[in-house]
Amino acid sequence: MRDVAERWGYEEIRTPTFERSELFTLKSGEAILKEMYEFRDKGDRHLALRPELTAPVIRMYINELKMAPKPTKWYYFGNCFRYEEPQKARYREFWQFGTEIIGSDSPAAQAELIALAFNILKSLGVKAELHVGHVGLIRERLRVANVAEVQINTVMRFIDKGERQAVIEFMDEIGVKKDLIDVLLFLLDLKGKDALKEARDRNIIAPDSDAMKELELLLEILEYYDVDYTLNLGIARGLDYYTGMVFEIYEAGGKLGAQNQICGGGSYRLAKLFGGDEIPLTGFAFGFDRLAEIFNVDDKDLERRGVVVVPIREKNADREVLKEAIEIASLLREFVPTHIDLMNRSLSAQLKYANARHDSFAVLMGKNELGEGKVTLRDLNTGEQEKISVVDCVARLKAYFDLN
Ligand code: HAM
Predict the structure, then answer these.
(1) Which residue of 3, 85, 96, 284 has the fewest C-beta atoms within 10 A of its own C-beta?
(2) pLDDT per position as a tens digit, 166-193
(3) Which atom of ligand 1 is closest in space to residue 84's alpha carbon?
């Protein structure tokens, strides 16, 4: 994932594990505290373990890196904490791999990020389905009807959770007219490539709507990137800061069950709220644990991959053999993970350890061999072994690991 992000010109950034809790409540209100690990430290500061990395990254940008050339393109990989009911692929501590573009939410920036996410999954061989939406369309519609911003946020949260009935009841309760409720439900149900055309044909979205124009251009650029998408205006996202395009990616190979959302993101605003100049932002984050779950990596599947250097010591402290072993290990450590006994174990115990760890080769060295300037190179996969010179041994292992 790092490789792909770096080839697209993104640089890694790290932020602290905890932040002042207001960083997260400023946008979402105190209600978000219920969903976070928050506490007071000895200086009575109200802190929170980060529930995500977008707000921390933007805070860091404003505090430290405002002068970076724009657009600034960052990626991160870090642990996050949310006070949720744990279940399969939903944890209280989990990892995100994400990116943020600071300085642009143009259709070109949006498309680049979606295409990057798509390419990361392609490089991992993950089967996925991408849904693209735009919260601006729904927000715009509600704003025109004078629905207050906090109420719009509540509606968006119900939409995000797929609670259709709650959307209807809440809008009814705050006095939204039935016509508008119907329009909203119609928008939520629109899916597929022709959705925009349908909304326009029915006069539900004005053709000169900024959100509409932006979305149309984005979809066109996605075609240039050869990215397959489903247009889904029902995507609302759980976080409050999104202002424009939003997208979600779901695992499509049936490996994850209910928690199959592996990536989410979109365009948003946060900089002014955090005390900086307002600046357009776009980003996404992958749920790393969910990706790991797809591969279901098992110890047994790991390839044999390292080398163990085994000094065969006759007595407990045969310094000469140990010295030589360390010298060879240092040569091997230039290109392959190399282990050396740290527990003064017998030859068989050292080999057992190497097998358990899936090493590929053992380099055995005893006093006699050393006298001849030789070692025994044993292939742990086949059990074959050969006495060769130290130079040949290193060269042979180098050739092997360059290839494998
Ligand atoms: P999010 O959708 O809340 O977005 O989280 C991103 C991804 O993290 C989800 O798609 C999911 O795969 C994973 N995830 C979330 N909660 C859990 C959990 N409890 N256990 C395991 N995995 C989880 C964000 O966090 C935004 N900051 C994304 C973003 C970046 N938007 C703009 N820039």
Answers:
(1) 85
(2) 999 999 999 988 988 998 898 888 888 7
(3) 19
